[in-house]
């Protein structure tokens, strides 16, 4: 065949490779942007300004000052304690997760991030690189190196794989590795882990080159060893993963042994030295670093931590933790919601004795099922050319041994957290890529099998990536707490999926009317009426049977308490009607359900009204957790038995009713009148009556309880200051009529009220002052609820609002 006849076939191949490479580059850049956005959209900003105590940069300053401790003096009172590690004594002086030894402060995290990034940056630029940006740099670098390694593996072992499977692998390596969840809170812990991730991937990349090279093997081995040594220095748990070097060297020794099988060639011994010396030097430096700090080569500072426990008495590793951790990391399913972010914290079993704690764990097999595709590597070696089959086996065995060794450390550890996944999951995903391509090669000759196999593997991959990304939005509630606008923008888009489902299923939201008979002979017992949420973020509406003629209905917002009615007289033989309107009977606030509706979403999802036979007994504005389902399960608790497992009376009917008009939104302008019963035993507390505006730019009109019989009214004009009335006497338990005119709610025709606050109590003017108000959208007003986060007052008014009336004129 001539060169001319070969050219047309080569051109399409080059064109396809060009498309593939550009696609991988775009994916790499997009995921890098997502990493950066994740790290800066929550708890940090895209800024070079320091954020509080930056432990690693304090270490950098210590190095520059010529010592190994942090450039931090702390409170001298700590040194005067009889036992500075006793949590009962050090609470006033404790700096969380710093190690304190002989009057100096250290960190038990490895120094690699400071040595290779933060210190050079400070020397070159003269200012610090904040920790959160360091985490992003290492995470992006680790991901990009894993991409290079993936492309090398594909080119050497699976050259026939097309662009689609390569792009899918690139996405898996960047999104399913749990790096986005780690980046949600990029602090000192995450910097050490991300740094180790970077150097482990660099070591694997160099080791793969050494495994495939006939020449320059020693150079690649030395690079792999040095990189892995730095990974150990950042994250000592990586030490056990050194077994991968033993696997590679063992195979070389077996393959290249001299005749007779008893001696190894000189080239093998040189390989051993190349693999051992760079990492050995770094490891020896780590031991010396520990000795100079704590007087022991094997002490990293853990037992000298200042925490809520005396770490010298904690059993950090134990066989008894193995079953529990195996369930957490491998088998524990997440809880689910039909609303964004769709995946919620898993429900763990009881912790074993001595276990330190856990944070946001999810079993890999049910939640990241793409990891199962790593098993496909067993077929991969059969399909390799003879000259590369053994090499491929060694690579697979080495990665598997590395994963088992490093993950095994965490299976015996006394704590577990979502950030630990980045310690071992990226290597597992490299095996997933190899296994996925192996399965694809095995079914390549059969069209239908090929279609089914790749469809199934793609579904597993997409589900796993979606899970990991959604978990990053959900992790710790950080995005919602710190950057609520970003969270709500994402929620509004993603919740269209549940909106479509609701329309197809004919789902209705809003109040419920229940016809029922309460059970007899349940005196002193609680029973559930409605239970909403996912453990441990659960809201309860319950009934307590106080005696043979009375009951109480109450609510509980887990971890924050609740309230209840006074005893309600009930005929247990009769049928009764409950009308219930509660925030958990609606979708979350950032949901398309509320788009274009006249009622105020913020009001609606923070309303609790309960009427018994038409009489209102509860009418308040508590905070609720987001519901997880549009399905209403009345009279049973599928989550816990906090207020009983089920309602034992007779439920005759349950039906949805139209939402009532939100009283605090119609009309929008003018003074208002509230008929309220003030709460008891709230001395010293401030509670909201009317709130307008938004975080950082709002006005909070509140009531302050001076003692059992005296109150005063006040206004917090955010960013400017306060004003308040003189003390006013009240009669407890009586209805108080509060009339007020806020300039922010005044009619444009009432120019005299634009810059005034006028308040009347029971017809008597108690406050009339000139003041300014923020110009805000009228729909931002809420009654009895502080939605804008003002710290002056509490989250809700805890008394009873019996009626809300609005006027057009004062």
Q: Report, as a whole number of angstroms, the end-to-end distance.
A: 98 Å
- DSSP summary: helix tally: 21
Based on secondary structure, the structural category is alpha+beta
- Mean pLDDT over the residues: 86
Helix percent band: 40-55%
Question: What global shape is seen?
Answer: globular
Strand residue percentage? 15-25%
Biggest sheet statistics:
6 strands, antiparallel
**What would you report as the Rg, rounded to the nearest angstrom?**
32 Å
- Note poorly predicted spans: 1-12, 662-667
What does this structure look like?
The protein is an alpha+beta fold and 810 residues long. It has 21 helices and 27 strands. The strands form seven sheets. Strands 18, 19, 20, 21, 22 and 26 form a six-stranded antiparallel beta sheet that branches. Strands 15-14-13-7-16 form a five-stranded antiparallel beta sheet, with no helix packed on it. Strands 8, 9, 10, 11 and 12 form a five-stranded antiparallel beta sheet that branches. Helix 5 (131-157) packs parallel to helix 8 (188-212) and helix 14 (377-383) crosses helix 16 (421-442). The longest helix has 39 residues, at 3-41. Mean pLDDT is 86; it is low at 1-12 and 662-667.
Write the layout of secondary structure elements.
Blueprint: H1 3-41, H2 55-64, H3 87-90, E1 99-101, E2 104-106, H4 112-125, H5 131-157, H6 163-175, H7 179-183, H8 188-212, H9 217-234, H10 243-256, H11 266-294, H12 322-331, E3 335-336, E4 343-344, E5 357-359, H13 364-367, H14 377-383, H15 386-411, E6 415-417, H16 421-442, H17 447-474, H18 478-482, H19 484-494, H20 496-505, E7 512-517, E8 526-534, E9 537-545, E10 550-557, E11 561-564, E12 568-569, E13 576-582, H21 601-604, E14 608-612, E15 615-620, E16 650-656, E17 672-677, E18 686-694, E19 697-707, E20 710-717, E21 721-724, E22 728-729, E23 735-742, E24 756-761, E25 764-770, E26 782-783, E27 800-806
Parallel strand pairs: 5-6
Antiparallel strand pairs: 1-2, 3-4, 7-13, 7-16, 8-9, 9-10, 10-11, 10-12, 13-14, 14-15, 17-23, 17-27, 18-19, 18-26, 19-20, 20-21, 20-22, 23-24, 24-25
